[in-house]
Amino acid sequence: MKKVVYIASAYSGNIENNVELTRAYSRYAVSEEACPLNPVLNLHGVLDEGSDREKALSIDLELLHRCDELWVFGIPTKGMKREIAEAEKLKMPVRYFS
User: Which of 28, 70, 91, 93 fits a disulfide with 87 by CB distance 3.0 to 4.6 angstroms?
Assistant: First the structure.
């Protein structure tokens, strides 16, 4: 069975560019024979970045609990740091990609 990897990447700021980048990160995970769970792609266009930020992060952390590893792409944002802290609390492997 393929491991499920949570893709942590930036969303806010240049949202269009960040969505394209995170699609590439998911493609990379697939090329590594992993099953990507990408919360940016899951919630993009569903919740509002401004008013629903905490709700989105709560959902993201719930999804993280269902994964085997956390893969961090780029420089961690405030939200990504919360995901990393949660993964560490779960003793989940965390891999960093630059």
Answer: 70
Residues lower than pLDDT 70 in the chain: 43-51
Kindly list the distances between the CA atom of residue 39 and the CA atoms of 67, 78, in Å, as whole numbers in the listed order.
Answer: 12, 15
> What residues pair up with 26 in beta bridges, in sequence order?
none
Burial environment of residue 40 by CB neighbours within 10 A (0 to 12, 13 to 18, 19 or more): buried
> Sign of dihedral through CA atoms 25, 26, 28, 29?
positive
Report residue 83 as tokens: 């995901």
66 three-class SS? coil
Using CA atoms, how far apart are residues 85 and 2, in angstroms rounded to an integer? 24
For 74: left if phi > 0, alpha if psi spans -120 to 50, otherwise beta; the answer is left
Rounded CA-CA distance 44/91 in Å is 28
Nearest 10 degrees: CA dihedral of 26, 28, 29, 30?
90
